[in-house]
Design goal:
single chain; 253 residues; alpha/beta; 6-stranded mixed sheet; 3-stranded mixed sheet; 9 strands; globular
Length: 253
Amino acid sequence: MTDRIHSEHDQGVALLTVDAPKSRNALTLDLSAELAAAVARAEADESVHAVIVTGAPPAFCAGADLTALGKADAEGLRSVYAGFLAVAGCRLPTIAAVGGAAVGAGLNLALAADVRLVGPHAKFIPRFLELGLHPGGGMTWMSQRILGPQQASAMALFGETLTAESAVRAGFALRFVDGDHDALVQAARDLAAPTVAAPREVVLSTKRTMRHTSGLTEHAAAVDAELVPQLESLAAPAFAERLAAMKARISGR
């Protein structure tokens, strides 16, 4: 079987699966480039409102291909990063459905998503210290932003692994899904359903605004940042249609 990124656009969601079973879904340079291209296709497809990233069972992603990593210069490292950086930069909402081990660059791939759901066998393993390797790809920034400095330090400086349960307790994963890989992906689809039902431009503008306001320090600045896109959504036909439908439902009660 050829290693690949399996890409499926269905019912408003792009499901991207890292499928390289012999290497436990390790990211080669080719797979990383394919993942970046798959993210770009999802963004370009007007029918897609959300992206789910997962790995073919039993792993999520065993990290970067060590042969490529060992030979890499600065440009080569950026090529290794390309796949998970595309997820991090995606204009659409992203969910990582993690059903197995997420190691090194696989941890970065999970960190890159907006939200993470975990199955019973999920594990988040830094492995950088074990390899004598400095973290890369923005791992130190992403982990501190999501986990806070103490838990991020435990992973980056002490190599601490998070299980599915401890990831939820630490706020790294949104929720635990008890079931097989299909159940995990379905839970991710269910989470994405309101996004799929919403106007795509509102989804895109909301994610843009969240990225902007995450760096602000004052409430008033966030109010100002939200004002223009909210006014644009108020003037859109979709809002008028949905408001009328809601009023009709309320009056019919």
